[in-house]
Protein 1
Amino acid sequence: MATLTRSAALPAWMSAFKTPEEVNRPVTDVEGRLPDGLAGTLYRVGPAKLDLAHHLFDGDGMVSAVRFAPDGGVHCATRFVRTGKYLAELNANRPAVKGFGTLVGRGGALRNAVQLSPGKGNAANTSLMFTAGRLLALWEVGHPWQVDPSTLETIGEMDFDGALEARLPFSAHPHWDPATGEIFNFGMVYGRKNSVASYRIDRSGRLHRLAEFGVPAAVMNHDFIITDRWLVFCLNPLRMRLMRFLSGRAAFGDSLEYHADEATTIVLVPRAGGDPVYVEAPAWFQFHFAAAFDDGDDVVIDLSRYQSYDDIGPYLKAFRTSASYGRPPTLWRYRVSTKTRRAEGHELSPQGLEFPQVDGRRATGGYRVIYGEFMDSERGVSGRIGRIELDTGRTDAWDPGSGWLVSEPIFVPRPGGNDEDDGWLIAHAYDPDRQATDAVVLDARDLSAGPLFTAHLPVNTGVTFHGAWRRAA
Ligand SMILES: [Fe+2]
């Protein structure tokens, strides 16, 4: 179990957990020059209303939109997603629905036991995606919530015109295939039988079901990755203790137990149909994948690997009082042979790295740079925005300062350019002195030079998990 550092004087960044205002206004406080050709909107989402939450994952989702207009103007809007959970708890003083790590505040174990549908706790706080012009706010085990991309008003819970049955969750980690324009995703189905459902969304926004494969236990799984041929799952030995959960004594997140002596099961689901391929490897834990690709009969998978779930799980629960972060994850590569059904893994860089990303045009192969948030154990949760070159191992980073909170960076290609890495990284950085967030634009090839452009937003967007860039029409 990781040791959590508790401090009597709480760090300044704790102010990031204050419930933000909803705003809709131009941003006039800017620095630097917006690069030519960079026009569009950075959407981000995170757990912004945390007053009733007992876990960072249970804050109500607020979507922010920072628009960079072609004439150089900047505009900022923030708005909570009006989920059932948000409305039920708007004027409440204790939790009304069970979340990932939060129990219902009234009615004890019995009331917590009877709320079996995980979707009720849907906070729409984890990630965003566009499909056929629709903006969706996503959570781990619920249906998407559709939001108007201009006004950020909540349109409603959506099920892809009935194609997504009520029992099927739609995870917060869809992946886009740059070659076909299709989007793939999955859902963890918990119940008498536990399974993983998988989906393909075509370019017109229609959802099609792919394989649904059974898993022997209720494991937590946050992300997956795609190659040209496969959907790739790495199911870590992080299992729910069923009786603790079903009896209503513990929320899902508090029922999880990491089994270091058990296998991580790699499951390859053929995109073209057919039976999944199962490969076992020694235990690890990951939240996020960077990318993966096919190499002959092998599948090569790059991910941010924790040595144990205990290096991150306790911190997420203790988000209000702890600035520590156990051992940060590092970038690992696994090579899986579909012939011999063996997997070999090694560390690509010792640099702590979460929220790994590649240039999305190379998401299924041919990349040599991985971007993300650099995590250094002595800095706790205060990270840097960094890049790792795979062939040289060289790293480069922008450090806003100790105590700042940086978000996952998103790579935006320079219009007209085709080379990998030719573009910008766009991110949020929470300034604890100003108690508000900056939207920053960095040259992807020269991060340590600092932001080319900074928009000092009039609001705190707090901790945001994931986002999406939408190029101006
Ligand atoms: Fe995530």
Protein 2
Amino acid sequence: MKILDWIDHRLPVITLFRKDLKDYPTPKNLNYFWNFGSLAGITLVIMILSGIFLAMHYTPHVEKAFDSVEQIMREVNGGWLIRYIHMNGASMFFIVVYLHIFRGLYYGSYKNPRELLWILGVIILLLMMASAFMGYVLPWGQMSFWGATVITNLFSAFPGGESIVQWLWGGFSVDNPTLNRFFALHYLFPFLLVGIVILHMVSLHQFGSNNPTGLDAKKKDKIPFHPYYTIKDLFGLAVFLSIYAFFVFFAPNFFGEPDNYIPANPLVTPPHIVPEWYFLPFYAILRSIPSKLGGVLAMFGAVLTLAVIPWLDRHPVRSATYRPIFKKLFWVMAVNAIVLGWVGAKPPEGMYLLIGRMATAYYFFHFIVLYPILTKYEKAKSVPEEIP
Ligand code: HEM
């Protein structure tokens, strides 16, 4: 169309979309694990849209927050649906992104030249966690209040910690200023995420996608993104939305904690303070170290370790497909992560504490010790010259 050509000549957005979404040369052999990036992007959009509509009816005040959420559920037209989409969307987002990360770990997608792409991913993960944590505080239920209290108090472990914690709270306890700033930041962070996801895509398209063989795809082994991967991504989206809809309509509180339907009460501590499931592995690491500061450092260290993986695993073969030992250890790590999640939900005593400590030790051992050893000694299977 003439008008579009006129615009594109002056502002080449159409060229950009054509280049990066339509013609984008993509390895021909991607499997379904390559669907999770686009699913994460779509989930981010769903979260932002549902969040904006929730914010239109939510009141960030300690006297009104809980009731405003109940008002959304009962009085606002379609309010229950918007809230359940947003609430369950957080869990779906983490499922998708955790699978996306494990895909990267298995196929060595973090290796040269995709190190920065990977690091941007770790920054995305940190921002997602901060955003989810603050969002959970907003309904001002018992778990919101006590979760916020426990997690903000962790900062008191650092030198001068008392003043850091009071600075975070904006007062002398988790109170109205805390709720207000959490709301402001919870609204802001997803937009920062959009910005970093754009950088993530720019970095991806610089060298193109990795693939299950881990080999650099030659020109003849690439196909245009559209229609081949648009249709595959759409199929994945249909499956994903069906699962998501199942939870929204049939089990909307499956991932939630019943205590959060009790209004926040600073005078009554719930018997078990548990975070949302997606924080449990990190929570287990936090609690498995006997000192508070040590626990906090280990928990943040667990995420930061991910950022340096490209320098811990420098084995020349990318994909686990051709690395027999690395492949087995990948599955050990996957089970280890599930074990950490399981212990994270249990009281930190007896067997649970012991198992949690062993799983924490393995987490760091896996990346910091085993990766460099494998880099040096693992003999890979014979790798084909090009994508078969
Ligand atoms: C909001 C969250 C995220 C979004 C929207 C997102 C989006 C995407 C998309 C669309 C792709 C290309 C399709 C694919 O390979 O699946 C991709 C690739 C990639 N992402 Fe993410 N991502 C997110 C989080 C992360 C995180 C947390 C990490 C790692 C810590 C990560 C690491 C990677 C890597 C290494 C690739 C290249 C994969 C390859 O080509 O094999 N991403 N991402």
